[in-house]
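Our platform keeps sequence and structure together, in a single record for each protein. Such a record has a labelled line for the sequence and another for the backbone structure tokens. Nothing more is needed to write down the fold, since each code stands for a local backbone conformation. For reference, a complete record is included directly beneath this paragraph:
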Amino acid sequence: MTEHMTTAICPGSFDPVTLGHLDIISRASKIFDRIIVAVPVNPDKRYSFSVSERIEMLRKVCGEAGIENAEFDRVEGLLADYAREKGAAVVVKGLRALTDFEYEFQQALTNKKLNPGLETIFLSTSAEHMFLSSSMVKQVAGFGGDISHFVPGCILDAIKDRLCKSI
């Protein structure tokens, strides 16, 4: 009998990485043998952090959390094609609310159509992170609010340096 390794992709903009993102990646890493944390390149969107900065933050955060089966990569093009290239069978997405579900369900159906071997698994966000989003972190930081309860401590200063407006 050959050993079967399951590769899952955790895609997201991670702009910036939040404790909610870390929660989903950490939980997925316990379910699957290999996790690819994938940051899509989207030239149409404006980001606070470059793709390489976001990947570096993810590396640091996951390393500090002891997540050893995670890899980090950028995705150019369709996630369904990327998954095929990487031999990934699963996409893992975190859901906070019903509004997330509608969009993510549409994405999952599209990915399934483009790559019939690709499954999407939804993990519900832990209760303490239900309200948390990168947009909310950016907004609070932009007004000089305390974001230390929303982002991993090891990247807090980097995020504050970029997002907090000096008064």
About this structure: The mean pLDDT is 92.
